[in-house]
Amino acid sequence: MADKHRVPPPDDDDWGERTEWQDSSFPPHQEQAQQPQHQQWSQTHAPQGPVPESYMTPAILVTLLCFLPTGIAAIVFASQVSAKATAGDYQGAAQASRRARILILVSVGVGVVFWLILIIAMSMSDTSTAYMPAP
To answer: Which of 16, 37, 80, 81 has the most CB atoms around its CB within 10 Å?
Structure first.
């Protein structure tokens, strides 16, 4: 795999003729058309599609405020979005984005249910001191 990325020496250096053990996929360096390095990189790493939303900020918020287990999973998938898009895996980035979004929605749902139960339980608890005996 490292041989694919090997760049032959520039024309101004005399490295001699190629030997039999060298990779035959490159023609001799005098015959190969030279491209600037930035053009080679932009041609091989050009974006293939739109980068999907990562949802990192909502994932962090639902982890802190709603439900920790699914929030952590949402953070993991949100971090995979940019990594996969940078690597050129736009389909994988879109799938990780969808999973992060779903986990965020699940965390919000569980968090809302938890906070509602907590509020109802607190409102139903008897905090009066009318039934307590005097000291």
So the answer is: 81
Here the tokens at position 126 are: 């008897």
Tokens of 22: 């060298």
Q: What is the pTM of this model?
A: 0.59
Place of tokens 């699940």: 106
Q: What are phi and psi for residue 96, nearest 5 degrees?
A: -65, -35
- Which residue type does 50 have? P
Name the token pair of 16: 């001699």
CA–chain centroid gap for 107, Å, is 19
How confident is the model over 49-83, as pLDDT tens digits? 788 999 999 999 999 999 999 999 999 999 999 99
Contact indicator for 84, 96 with CB cutoff of 8 Å: yes
Under the phi-then-psi rule, with left for phi > 0, alpha for psi from -120 to 50, and beta for the rest, what region is 67? beta
Tokens linked to 118: 């907590």
> Around Cβ 97, how many Cβ atoms within 10 Å?
22
